[in-house]
Amino acid sequence: MSTPVRGRVRVAQGAKRVRVFLGGRNVADTVHPLLVWEVPYYPTYYFPRADVESGLLTPSGRTSHSPSRGEGVLSTIKVAGSEAVDGALEYPDSPIEELRGHVRFDFAAFDWFEEDEQIFTHPRDPGVRVDILPSSRHVRIEVGGVTVADTVRAHLLFETDLPTRYYLPRVDVRMDLLEKTQTVTHCPYKGATEYFSVTGHEDLAWSYPTPLPESTRVAGLVAFLDEKVDVYVDDVLQERPKTKFA
Predict the structure, then answer these.
(1) pLDDT at 16 (0 to 100)
(2) Which of 75, 199, 215, 217 has the maximum number of C-beta atoms within 10 A of its C-beta?
(3) Residues 112, 152 within the same domain
């Protein structure tokens, strides 16, 4: 159940078992995680203090202030061969009552598991759904007036609160106009990307070579940043979406 709280912060009780590891050692293990939306786009996990391994958190003396969450106390976690400096954060006197007595871990500094599956980037939002459907609609992509992709075998990816993305078979993409870049991003629903420049435009297309199990339908397909290209669906030019990615 979600609870409206101060500012942009929203809190909900999670139902999954969530574990955090550092250097192969279990740091926290709970079946009562809190999902906390500190930003609008995705949540983070907070753990009951009782479900954090005792003796591993050493206060660093540093603090982190949040206008909505209050004064945060930072701690360092050290295990054999591994250390996460200021990797844990607590708000003992937070104006948001639900956060008191809970610990927030820096997601990038640890290995995370929901039940027995490792997760990446950030926790999955229970309100987000991803549907990937094959489509025979005619999809054509132009960049600067040049057709770079043309197919009737696209897969359409529908993700909550995001524009439809068109994933196209490589045989229907002018791969000679694409050049792989060094950019890599991660999605908790789809996995790790590889990016391409298109006719000199940096990181205008991407692909998931080995997507997560729920997104295998887009494996190896190519999608374009619709915010910066011209997309024609059944010969109708689509309005360019306005998103944070533009």
Answers:
(1) 95
(2) 75
(3) no
Domain count, the chain: 2
What tens digit of pLDDT does each residue of 202-214 get?
999 999 999 998 8
pLDDT of residue 123: 92
Same domain, 38 and 138: no
- For residues 107 and 197, membership in a common domain is answered with no
| Same structural domain, 113 and 140 | no
Residue 244 lies in a domain: no
DSSP structure string for the chain: -EEE-STT-EEEE--S-EEEEETTEEEEEESSPEEEESSSS--EEEEEGGGBPTT-EEEEEEEEEETTTEEEEEEEEEETTEEEEEEEEE-TT-SSGGGTTEEEE-GGGSEEEETTEEE-SSPPPTT--EEEEEE-S-EEEEETTEEEEEES-EEEEEETTS--EEEE-GGGB-GGGEEE-S---EETTTEE-EEEEETTEEEEEEEBSS--GGGGGGBT-EEE-TTTSEEEETTEEPPPP--TT-
Residue 2, pLDDT > 70, answer no
Q: What is the pTM of this model?
A: 0.80
Give the structural domain span for 70.
2-119
